[in-house]
Amino acid sequence: MASPLTIVMYHYVRDFARTRYPGLKGLDVAGFRRQLDHLMSSFRIVRMEDVIAAVRGEAELPPDAALLTFDDGYAEHFDAVFPILHDRGLQGSFFPPVAPIRDGTLLDVNRVHFILASAPSSAPLAAAIDEAVVGAVGEYDVRSVSDYRSEWAHSNRFDDAETIYVKRMLQTALPSALRGQVARQLFERFVSVDESTFAAEQYLNRDQARLMVDCGMYFGSHGKSHLWLNHVDTATRIDEIEGSLDFLADLGMPVGDQWVMCYPFGGWDDALVEILRARSCTVGLTTRVDTAQIGVDDPLTLPRYDTNDFPQ
Ligand SMILES: [Zn+2]
């Protein structure tokens, strides 16, 4: 029998009145508190262990179950989110990629967000990217600007076409070395702070994550380097998964026959799901927007709502 589960996805949850980057798209801490009030009055907030047990047929979820998930391992997940959840006796499920915590690197996805938050609009960024594409002909395996634009410049629920074009070109569309180079130039030009100091400020660290685990928070896999796992070869997929499991084991999370994958960018395909199934992954979280139906949906591709889908 299907058991509905409302999974809510969060990224940045910041004190926006006191940040250098008020243009960043995210949820204000006060809005987060209000949203929790709303969710707690409309749903029963369950723990990831309850969801795992329901998926395995060992227990049932309440009919009004909701689960809170936090992607990308930001510092504010420790500073702001964790104390609020802990005070209310709630569990959050956190999905930090390994590289920023272990190596202090700034993720491409975040570099792009802060470039967009700091530039006057996405137009000069898109123009600079187009210029870089034209300049890279002969040196890199690039396609034409019009090809890239027709594939990637499409608006979605949250962003206009020009913004999506900037994000996708710098996250996945351009050859890896070229997009790294272009993104670093734009970061220097528009964000203009030291990138390694900046990276250290952005993410929670290992000891903070361990404390959160000790206090009952759940941690799952979001890969090592936050890649679109459906766009990389099999060896890279396995390396990304195994590297993240080593990291989770070090935090004290179970990684044997029950663990959770949260797909970076929501990117998955059938081959990836089969790799995860063979590795005894229990639950997979996508970015498809819907209520999950435990007992009906494939547990390795469960849909999630965005925080913006609920009152804040
Ligand atoms: Zn992510």
Number of helical regions: 13
Our Rg estimate from Cα atoms comes to 19 Å
Number of strands: 11
Q: SSE string, helix = H, strand = E? A: EEEHEHEHEHHHHHHHHEHEHEEE
- Uncertain stretches: none
Strand-residue proportion: 5-15%
CATH superfamily of the largest domain: Glycoside hydrolase/deacetylase
Q: In words, what does this structure look like?
A:
By secondary structure, this protein is an alpha/beta fold. It has 2 domains: 3-104 and 203-309, TIM Barrel, CATH 3.20.20.370; 108-198. Helix content is 47%, strand content 12%. The chain contains 13 helices and 11 strands. Strands 1, 4, 5, 6, 7, 10 and 11 form a 7-stranded mixed sheet that branches. Strand 5 (65-71), helix 3 (75-87) and strand 6 (93-95) form a beta-alpha-beta unit. Helix 5 (108-118) packs antiparallel against helix 8 and helix 8 (161-173) crosses helix 9. It is globular and about 60 Å long. The two termini are 32 Å apart. 41% of the residues are buried. Residues 71-72, 222, 226, 264 line the site of zinc ion (ZN). The site of zinc ion has 5 residues, from loops.
How would you sum up this structure in a few lines?
With 312 residues, the chain is of the alpha/beta class.
Secondary-structure blueprint:
Layout: E1 3-10, E2 13-14, E3 27-28, H1 29-42, E4 44-45, H2 48-55, E5 65-71, H3 75-87, E6 93-95, H4 98-103, H5 108-118, H6 123-136, H7 145-152, H8 161-173, H9 176-191, H10 195-202, H11 206-214, E7 218-219, H12 234-251, E8 260-262, H13 270-278, E9 283-285, E10 292-294, E11 305-306
Parallel strand pairs: 1-5, 1-11, 2-3, 4-5, 5-6, 6-7, 8-9
Antiparallel strand pairs: 1-10
The structure holds zinc ion (ZN).
